[in-house]
Amino acid sequence: MQHTIKPNAFKSSARHYRSIFISDIHLGTRGCQADKLLDFLKKTESDVLYLVGDIVDGWRLKKSWYWPQSHNDVIQKILRKARKGTKVIYVPGNHDEMLRKYYGTHFGGIEVRETDIYTDARGKRFWILHGDAFDNIFQHARWIVYLGDNAYTFLIWFNRRFNQIRSLLGLKYWSLSAFLKHKVKNAVQFIGEFEKTVTAQARQRSVDGVICGHIHHATIQTFEDISYMNDGDWVESCTALVEHHDGRWEILHWLDIADQFLAHDGDEEVEAEPALGAVDGRA
């Protein structure tokens, strides 16, 4: 399905983009940086907002319930954007695969789609998907993925404690997991192979580029004639992919630039609805 956007009538002092792409938020995990994402959502607006998978971490919630108020606030903020005119498209990933049986349906103004085709301001067509379908490890050895998920959860926990100490010392946030991912040879090789595989699939679909998430590695690259863009995550790097109104694309590293953005003029507080965990403690 090809998606055409309409100008958003909602005006504010927030930085306005033609489109915003975010993924791998992992609501329901302790590693999710929901407070920083909420700050981003308050300070930005767009005609269309894509949620490119792993928004809610169903895997982790099945093992242990964790849903603080800040995670509820993120959901409420996204729903408010949809009510105020932002076109919100949700492309589920592997961690929120429970939503994949709802393709074509709407939840509070949010449409769930398997994939999508997005046309930018310059007329270029981009294939939108989460990306796990082209992760060979996930497809052929899912038990390794679950094992890795537990190790990754521990790494994120350690990284959070480490950064609490850095904060007390007046130092900026630093992602240990992102550092290791760039330094470990196998991880670098996996990222490279994933990018090439997804790009090759995009070329077969006769599009100009591909936008995805899944591997928590934000980047904008060109492989021959195909643009590859990954919007990153909100666990390690807190990044978003945005399209300016002139068709220019950019990765926003929110931890570095948040102070440069203004909050909405007159933007009301997020509804003080109880967090889901406080209601019944179940998914």
Strand count: 13
The CATH topology label is Purple Acid Phosphatase, chain A, domain 2
The low-confidence parts are 4-13, 137-148, 269-273, 275-283
If you compute it from the alpha carbons, what radius of gyration comes out, rounded to the nearest whole angstrom? Answer: 18 Å
Averaging pLDDT over every residue, what do you get?
82
Inertia-based shape: globular
Structural account:
The structure is a single chain. This protein is of the alpha/beta class and 283 residues long. The chain has one domain (2-146, 211-220, 230-279): Purple Acid Phosphatase, chain A, domain 2 (4-Layer Sandwich), CATH 3.60.21. It has helices spanning 34-43, 58-63, 69-83, 136-140, 142-168, 176-183, 185-204, 254-257, 276-279; strands at 2-3, 15-22, 44-51, 87-90, 106-107, 110-112, 116-119, 125-128, 209-212, 219-223, 226-230, 239-243, 249-253. The strands form two sheets. The protein has a seven-stranded mixed β-sheet with strand order 5-6-4-3-2-12-13. A six-stranded mixed β-sheet has the order 1-7-8-9-11-10, covered by helices on one side. The chain is globular. The model is unreliable at 4-13, 137-148, 269-273 and 275-283 (pLDDT under 50).
